[in-house]
Design goal:
Layout: H1 2-28, E1 30-35, H2 40-44, E2 48-50, H3 52-61, E3 66-70, H4 73-82, E4 87-89, H5 105-114, E5 119-123, H6 128-132, E6 136-138, H7 143-148, E7 154-158, H8 161-170, E8 175-178, H9 191-200, E9 205-208, H10 214-218, E10 222-223, H11 226-235, E11 240-244, H12 249-256, E12 261-263, H13 279-288, H14 297-314
Parallel strand pairs: 1-2, 1-3, 3-4, 5-6, 5-7, 7-8, 9-10, 9-11, 11-12
Helix pairs in contact: 1-13, 3-4, 4-14, 11-12
This protein binds (~{Z})-2-methylbut-2-enedioic acid.
């Protein structure tokens, strides 16, 4: 009884916040862009949803003056790098990415000195400064293609070691120098979680994000980015899927595929940083026009070159 009363209270509260956000959005000429890992109620109010790169690119196409980026810091930074003329707001300043924080530009410069002939590939989950100190960026959907496109054999791959290992397994002709970084959410999935989930949901396909541990990837039927998961599920004849990535993905997978079933291999696949953003903080963000994400101009220009090089390699290619 108590829970039910609370739930209906929550629903009423959320509905009034949604109305407030809608009004503020119009008055500010703002667009709300939402990452696939956000809370369900935030994905519900998204003008555009997707992965970090798709969102930054969508931000370039919008004629809104204000971009409210519901994601984490490095994503809002990328949007700002690609859209210097627009105001990019991150509703909660503390929404960081522990993986991106596992590398600094100083440490990267020291590594480059150790391997002077190597090219530096940075995963988009990195700060603007790290992007500025890298040769080319990549996402989880294009990492193999980006590394393959480089003439160098030696590649310093930062900061995610699991994605780096995955690239190495697919490109034995390259020598990938790994960074000791990882996503604290994705590494929570253990081999036994997948084994148990497969026993529980016989016939279900396992789809894993390349930030997961190699043992988990070895047990998966398909490895891909969040964008790739939508594409894969749509075309797969399977009816049930075990999804090894952040829990927020289930919202849109279920919405787009109402006749299919989705399961997480562990309830621990929740990124606390992604979940910091709430409807209340979005309303606050639009009301007070906070927190603006700005990148120093010199850093921005260099980081943009790194992102643009990636876009040149992958232009117009579908999600993998
Ligand atoms: O780039 C992104 O949005 C992330 C963090 C994951 C993915 O695979 O889309």
């Amino acid at each position: 009884m108590h829970t039910q009363r609370q739930d209906s209270g929550d629903i009423k509260y959320n509905e009034s916040l949604k109305k407030k956000i809608e009004k503020l959005k119009k008055s500010r000429n703002a667009v709300i862009i939402v990452h696939n890992y956000q809370r369900d109620e935030i994905q519900e109010i998204a003008d555009i949803s997707g992965d970090s790169l798709a969102l930054s690119q969508a931000a370039v196409r919008t004629d809104a003056d204000v971009i409210v980026f519901c994601g984490v810091q490095f994503m809002a930074e990328s949007a700002s790098i690609l859209n210097p003329g627009k105001k990019v707001l991150l509703p909660v300043m503390e929404a960081g990415c522990p993986l991106a924080d596992m590398i600094t530009p100083e440490k990267l410069r020291a590594k480059k000195k150790q391997y002077p002939g190597a090219a530096v590939v940075c995963y988009v989950n990195s700060s603007a400064e790290v992007k500025a100190a890298s040769d080319i960026a990549c996402t989880s959907s294009n990492a193999i293609e980006v590394v393959r496109s480089l003439k160098e054999k030696d590649i310093i791959f930062v900061p995610d070691k699991n994605l780096g290992r995955y690239v190495q397994a697919n490109l034995p002709e390259k020598n990938i120098i790994l960074w000791d970084g990882f996503c604290p959410t994705h590494i929570r999935v253990q081999e036994e979680d997948i084994v148990k989930a497969k026993e529980l949901h016989k016939g279900a396909e396992v789809i894993a994000h390349p930030e997961c541990n190699p043992e988990v990837l070895a047990l998966s039927d398909h490895i891909c980015s969040t964008g790739g998961m939508f594409a894969y599920v749509k075309k797969s004849p399977a009816r049930e899927f075990i999804i090894s990535t952040e829990s927020g993905m289930l919202y849109k997978l279920q919405k787009d595929n109402p006749d299919k079933k989705f399961y997480l291999p562990t309830p621990h696949l929740v990124c606390a940083n992604m979940k910091l953003i709430t409807l209340g903080w979005i309303a606050h963000s639009l009301e007070k026009m906070v927190y603006e994400i700005k990148v120093d101009d010199e850093v921005r220009k260099k980081a943009k070159v790194t992102l643009d090089r990636m876009l040149t390699v992958t232009m117009g290619k579908p999600e993998k």
